[in-house]
TrEMBL record:
Coiled coil: none annotated. Residues 1-25 form the signal peptide. This is Amidohydrolase-related domain-containing protein. Residues 52-296 form the Amidohydrolase-related domain. Pfam families: Amidohydro_2. PROSITE patterns: PROKAR_LIPOPROTEIN.
Length: 297
């Protein structure tokens, strides 16, 4: 066939059209790792609630969520998901984290409450039906100085020694304080920064922290300034993600039931801005970075 053969021209046009469509895909179509998921008692208390395991798992499955960092208040929710037959049927891998809260009072006391440290030890010893716990958190520090609480210090040391990740909802000042308490001074500390700072510290500050702590990862739910018009990445965030493609993850943060009801929209929002990134970068943020952290295939 010569170069001007109609079939060859048609094939070339088809390939060109496919390439254009690929470059402007509306959504990232690969797997997602939900790296910030709560299964709290108001979602389902083991008996009643609007989101029993079958319902929660159906939401993950239809959104292509293949793995989750699961944590819950109390830890019974994580234990349930880790053991549920529905979890395996949905093809979801549970990476369990120990939540530091038995109830809402613990949010503002965990960092100085010795009984929380004991609860963590007991939970770690117990493990889950999906294997040992892989991390601690999510925990909150509304006042960064509480990173210096006696129990906060002990938990950070424990996490690094046991190679547990921590999921921390803290400000940028507390990142430095927590890292300073780890035996390696933050060089071997696997810290997932929930929301990458919900107060919205500047991108330049986020970058400084990423450079200072090699295993620091930013989770992007609720991140102020992340997306601009049409839900697409703002330019400075696009630049940051392209510069550190192995340091960001995404999560649903189902901290209240409204987030379960909006689960499709939350994941759809991620899929839209992921599609603007080069495919290999999108795959890392959506799946690969969290999967590598926990040794998933
Ligand atoms: Zn959360």
């Amino acid at each position: 066939m010569g170069p001007r053969h109609p079939l060859r021209i048609a094939a070339a046009l088809f390939a060109l059209a496919a390439a254009c469509l690929g470059a402007h895909a509306a959504e990232y179509g690969g797997p997602l790792f939900d790296a910030h998921l709560h299964y709290n008692e108001e979602a389902w208390d083991g008996d009643s609630g609007p989101y029993p395991p079958a319902e929660a798992l159906a939401r993950m499955q239809r959104n292509g969520v293949k793995a989750i960092i699961a944590n819950s208040r109390p830890n019974a929710g994580t234990q349930t998901l880790a053991a549920a037959q529905e979890t395996r049927a949905a093809g979801v891998t549970v990476v369990p984290f120990v939540r530091l809260y038995r109830n809402r009072d613990d949010y503002s006391n965990w960092f100085r409450d010795e009984s929380i440290y004991e609860m963590v030890q007991a939970e770690l010893a117990r493990g889950t039906a999906s294997g040992p716990y892989r991390g601690l958190g999510e925990f909150h520090l509304y006042d960064s100085a509480n990173a210096n609480g006696a129990v906060a210090r002990k938990l950070i040391v424990l996490a690094e020694q046991k190679k547990l990740a921590v999921l921390a909802h803290v400000d940028d000042t507390a990142i430095d304080l927590l890292m300073a308490h780890s035996p390696s001074k933050g060089q071997a500390m696997r810290l997932i920064w929930a929301h990458t700072g919900i107060g919205g510290p500047p991108v330049s500050r986020v970058r400084t922290l990423l450079e200072r702590y090699p295993l620091l990862m930013g989770e992007l739910s609720y991140r102020p300034g992340l997306t601009c018009e049409g839900g697409m990445l703002c330019p400075e965030w696009r630049d940051l993600i392209l510069r550190y493609p192995d340091r960001f993850v995404v999560g649903s943060d189902t901290w209240v039931n409204q987030r379960w009801s909006a689960y499709d929209q939350i994941m759809g929002g991620y899929r839209r801005w992921l599609a603007e990134l080069p495919p290999e970068v999108a795959q890392r943020i959506a799946w690969g970075n969290a999967a590598a952290l926990f040794g998933l295939r």
